[in-house]
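Journal club side-thread
Mid-discussion, someone asked how the predicted structure for our own chain would compare to the paper's figures. Pasting it here so we can look after the session.
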Amino acid sequence: MPHLHHGALGSSGSVMLSVPIVLTALVYLRGWLQLRLTTVSVSGLRAFSFILGLLLIWVAIASPVAALDHELLTVHMLEHLLLMTLAPPLIWLGEPVRALVDGLPQSSLRMVQRPLLGKLGRLCGRPQFCWLAAAAALVLWHIPAIFALGMRSASWHFLEQSSFLATGLLFWWPVIQPWPSASTPDLSIILYLFFATLPCDILSGFLVFCDRVVYPVYLSSSHLFGLSALGDQQYAAALMWTCVTVIYLVAGAALTMRLLSPHHHVEFAELRVVDVQHGLEALQHGD
């Protein structure tokens, strides 16, 4: 079966994908520096988290590693994990909406603030929608026929990666609750994370214990590192199974400790006061 040779996209394709990432980082850093001059600031650790998240996105879509996903399902699965499971929480921990809004030119700021920020908070604040979107993307793109389509076409492959990143960001919003979210995570988010592991467990378990190659596109690969197509499939599934379980477990444990902290309610009240002040300041600047 023919498949897309991503290396054939050349350096120009990597540059085209890298430019938006670099521009996003520059806008964020501009906003981060401006916020340091106000009463509302974003810590250096949060800025590092955001830049690290962007770096992981670059590794998944534009680095030399990304060019190997047509050779190894393990690399392909690593890309999915970076885009859905690792990069999104790092991005949200960096308070990107706050910094990016302040980093945009004033003309763009007027267009972004009023109509979009409120809608963003309301849409992403629905855990059911976020959970279903992430689960649907995971299942859909691992159906063999659709998986093969993504490997044969550069456009479909880009759509696949974009959907993983978009639904990953949606999934992690209710967990992190960055600004302009008007709520805070509660104990139901622990169940949210638990049930999110189920689609991954079912898919990875099937791929690990299946005695045939589910994605025939890898039968004709060069079998890097001496891996057979079936062995590669098992490694890829084990990688997903392990990483998703560990990351969700860590997130759930951190969230539980935060919720059980006696200072949680006081901190949340103080945070909301600061967010309201920042929102008023931003609207005044937009005028």
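Post-session note: The chain has a mean pLDDT of 84.
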